[in-house]
Design goal:
Strand order of the largest sheet: 1-2
Number of helices: 6
Structural class: mainly alpha
Radius of gyration: 61 Å
């Protein structure tokens, strides 16, 4: 509230006052406002429109001393300008196109030699690096070839084993030549799949389908235990 009243007093205050974010009248948290100078676009104050400034009057001794210092300053600056002018003129006289061309050629030759030495050094390093890279690549290719040979040998051995197994099984295949003999053998040797497993682990394959007598089962189990004890 106090800050709002302060702003409303003058148009200069509203445009050039920088208040704090929190205006608190508490003296412990007091923060003063910072005021700027009068901006140049504002007109002259009414109290200073017709004011005629008084020209300062210096003593004679002080005026003479100021004039002496000013004359010395002008003399020094004039001598410096003349010295710089003469120095630039001498440099223009000493400037020769042949000398500049010779300096440019010498500089080019010097830079060319430096660049040549750098190129030779980098070329030697490149040769060493390429040779090392070539050796590593050759070693890697040889290792890959050995791994490929090993894999091929393992695959060939697996294929040979499967071929041998197929050859052994092929003797039981039914072909056009032995199909009549296979039919006759199947009719002569009837296989019954009606079988059961006894509690002692024996297969019972009686064609009648009746369970074996208890005495026969006990006898079979005793005979099996006797054979296991002998072995």
């Amino acid at each position: 509230m106090q800050f709002a009243k302060l702003i409303g007093r003058s148009p200069l205050v509203a445009s050039h006052a920088h208040p704090c974010t929190c205006f608190n009248p508490n003296p412990i948290q007091h923060q003063s406002l910072r005021w700027k100078r009068k901006p140049i676009w504002l007109p002259t104050a009414k109290t200073k429109v017709f004011r005629v400034p008084v020209r300062p009057k210096l003593p004679v001794d002080e005026a003479l001393e100021i004039q002496r210092l000013y004359n010395n300053y002008r003399t020094y600056m004039k001598s410096l300008r003349h010295y710089f002018y003469e120095l630039a003129k001498q440099q223009e006289i000493q400037l020769d196109e042949s000398v500049l061309e010779k300096e440019e050629k010498d500089d080019f030759i010097r830079c060319f030699e430096i660049n040549k030495s750098w190129n030779e050094k980098i070329a030697a390093e490149r040769i060493v690096y390429q040779e090392k890279q070539r050796e590593e690549q050759i070693a890697k290719i040889a290792e890959n070839i050995q791994l490929k040979k090993k894999k091929d040998e393992e695959k060939r051995a697996m294929v040979d084993a499967k071929v041998r197994e197929a050859k052994l099984i092929s003797s039981t295949f039914i072909t056009r030549e032995n199909i009549d003999q296979a039919i006759e053998d199947a009719l002569a040797n009837v296989v019954s799949y009606n079988k059961a497993l006894t509690p002692d682990g024996q297969w019972y394959t009686d064609s009648s389908g009746l369970p074996p007598p208890k005495e026969q089962v006990n006898l079979t189990s005793k005979r099996q235990k006797k054979m296991d004890s002998t072995f």
